[in-house]
Design goal:
By secondary structure, the protein is mainly α. It has one domain: Glycerol uptake facilitator protein. It has 8 helices and no strands. Helix 1 packs antiparallel against helix 2 and helix 3 runs antiparallel to helix 4.
Length: 215
């Protein structure tokens, strides 16, 4: 379990270092072109997800996401205690990744975001993004488990662009991005609504695909 928790911490750390670090880099290099900045944030995020799932999947399952851990708890594949420990490791890892990104780019270490992400469109986007992520995982797990890393990376890459929220789809990511007043940030006062919608979507997708994939 110590190795699993360390893997979840370290994997989520690298995920957030990539999300926030590439967001800072993209914003600095884009010259005010938001589309280019978003593209510069999207490609590294999708790419690192493939790498992290391939590396840490055999160790911890490579959740890096409390919503994903909740899915496997509902499926009775992880205990309540282990789920809680996984989620704690993910949240702490995510915040650590943001702090490391800030250090790399010489931003203030703790710099709460002022980036407003609220409203019906944003909440619907997070529901769609999280539902689709869980659908990707469960669908591939049933038929092509070896393809999960690539499918998740590609799904998130696409969802960055087809959702108005740019597809957080992850409560640990959402919490951590509240600490970064950068391109990838979210106002901390808007974090709670995102997390609520993400968890609702994860539960809905779990039971939807339980029914769809029943033999």
């Amino acid at each position: 379990m110590q190795r699993k928790l360390f893997a979840e911490w370290l994997g989520t750390l690298f995920l957030l270092a990539t999300v926030v670090g590439s967001g800072i880099m993209a914003e600095r290099l884009a010259g005010g072109n938001v589309a280019i900045a978003l593209l510069g944030n999207t490609i590294p995020t999708g790419a690192i997800l493939v790498v992290l799932i391939l590396v840490f999947g055999p160790i911890s399952g490579a959740h890096f996401n409390p919503a994903v851990t909740l899915v496997f708890y509902i499926r009775k594949e992880i205990s309540a205690l282990d789920s809680g420990l996984f989620i704690l490791a993910q949240v702490v890892g995510g915040i650590t990744g943001v702090l490391i990104a800030h250090l790399m780019f010489e931003n203030p270490l703790i710099d709460p975001s002022t980036h407003a992400r609220t409203g019906t469109g944003q909440w619907i986007s997070e529901f769609v993004a999280t539902f689709g992520l869980v659908a990707t995982i469960l669908g591939c797990l049933k038929t092509r488990a070896e393809a999960i890393a690539f499918a998740v990376g590609l799904y998130i890459t696409a969802a960055y662009w087809f959702t108005a929220s740019t597809s957080f789809a992850n409560p640990a990511v959402t919490i951590a991005r509240g600490f970064s007043n950068s391109f990838a940030g979210i106002d901390p006062s808007h974090v709670g609504a995102f997390i609520l919608v993400q968890l609702l979507a994860a539960v809905t997708a779990t039971f939807t695909f339980k029914w769809l994939l029943e033999e």
